[in-house]
Amino acid sequence: MKLFHARMIPVALRVALGAIFIYAAVPKIADPVAFAGSVAAYRILPYFWSYLTAAVLPFLELLCGVLLVCGVRVRSGALIIGVLNLVFMVALASAMIRGLDIDCGCFRPEGAKTAPWVALLRDTLFLFMTAIVIRHERLQVRSPLPERTAFRD
Amino acid sequence: MAQKSSLKTVLEIAVIVFVSAVFGIFWNRTLLADAWRGAPAAPQAAPAAQQAEALPMPIGLAQVKELHDSGQAVLVDARSGASFAKEHISGARSLPLEEATRQRTPQLEGVAKDAVVIAYCNGFSCHDSMDLGKLLIKAGYGSVYVFEGGLPEWRDSGYPTSGGAR
What we know:
The structure holds two protein chains of two kinds.
Chain A: H1 2-30, H2 32-41, H3 47-70, H4 74-97, H5 116-142, H6 146-152
Helix pairs in contact in A: 1-2, 1-3, 1-5, 2-3, 3-4, 4-5
Chain B: H1 2-27, H2 29-37, E1 57-58, H3 61-69, E2 73-77, H4 81-86, E3 88-89, E4 93-94, H5 97-103, E5 116-120, H6 128-138, E6 143-147, H7 150-156, E7 161-162
Parallel strand pairs in B: 1-6, 2-4, 2-5, 5-6
Antiparallel strand pairs in B: 3-7
């Protein structure tokens, strides 16, 4: 029973991480202009690039989220999510250092304002979850389903 | 074996990013085309004297710049006093939404009721400028516009701002 629980944790984390990214992507796809405003508020990208980011990023989040939830191409999806998380964290940290009073723009564009440090902590948690998912995936690739092999023997 | 698996992952990542980019660009093609031209959501016609309406009209960056440079419009910053002190569009005056709400019918000192007034705040995700615009219309100002790109779009275009440390 304990073994069952331990094996379920990475799967649960994978599905949760995927669901979080789908949840984050949908409102941004629905209102790209508001998300472009959130991106522009970071003052990192030039004007047009804020819009391009706002157009593409939510779809990348959505696709990776769906892959993680479905358990398809998990390693690639999780790696992209990991890199995205790192990029978000750098952007948030730079906003904090520059003292920008902005909403992180992580989830709902018109939702309650989230302070950069809260978002940074949240992204750290997501990154940790991603690391576990990738590590579990690698272990599975190395030794695919040992219990089935035992059954076949 | 490991090298082959890494190559496969890199290829998969490239495909995922490519597919997302194609979908994203196609889905938002109109918005991106407008942004490329530099005027998303900008009205086509030049702002004429606008009669009092319930909602303030949106106005694009190019027109705001023109009215700003020719001194034909009063720019009103709807953000907090502290944000205004840090940075604001040159020549703008501060009227935080909170203060305007408290006053109910906010008055802009020395500004005629038929003057062109443009409210702005922190860009597209900020709705304070729209709310301030509504209050100004209620207070009797006839030509109220909202610059939805706000300070971020203005600054990113390299137009002048004033204020303390960035």
